[in-house]
Here is the input.
Amino acid sequence: MKRDPEQKVEAGRNLSRREMLGLMGSAAAAIVFVGCGPEQSGSGSTTGGAATVATGETTAETAASCTVRPEQTEGPYFVDEMLNRSDIRIESSDGSVSEGVPLDLTFKVSRSDGSSCVPLAGALVDIWQCDALGQYSDVEGNVGKKFLRGYQVTDQSGTAQFTTVYPGWYQGRAVHIHFKIRDSPESDQGYEFTSQLYFDDALTDEVHSQQPYAEKGERDRRNSDDGIYGGGGNELTLQLTPAGEGYAGTFDIALDTTHG
Here is the structure.
């Protein structure tokens, strides 16, 4: 199947009122995203040490080591379905469930003021990915389908959780999941950040040796051969641990409000 090349999305574009209608949450606009966690290599500055930060009537102590996460292409397969659901495996038209190794994916979204990270509530986290055989829903031959797409709004701890499957592959790309975070989904002038998550090649080899992945055959791109991964993919690679019959991973990312 011929795939269109993935195109670069403009960072921080304004969203229309139609795109924002009916969603919740707020945060500062004109900011860049960073990951909040152990110091990593890559572009962007870091801040070290622990800090105590006031959050309303409570006080949260955080390990303030925030590293810039690179933005990457949106690609040709984003469809703003506005599917508010945590389990994105389900095909809404018939209730079927995408086959594959289960993956529990947690986003921890924070805001940074340059010296500390505090949880960001009300941010919209949208993810979309291909299935075990490399197919996306609602594009090309799957128009009208909704599998492996959905969003969640972060809670008071900045957390958004998804149940999905380990992704398959398609021609010309390393294995990945797309994500988009909108910091002010109720605003006419919201800011959005788009990037991708990647997986360890050795783990992918193990997963893809199983059915239904093995049906598609050996993938044609590893991380090191993927030009998009080359733009900071090492900072976007999920660290997974076994969980039941599948895997679980948490991805920390924060808004750097000092760049407004």
About this structure: The longest strand covers residues 102-112. The helical segments are 17-20, 201-208. DSSP finds two helices and 13 strands in the chain. Residues 17-259 form a domain with the Protocatechuate 3,4-Dioxygenase, subunit A fold (CATH 2.60.130.10).
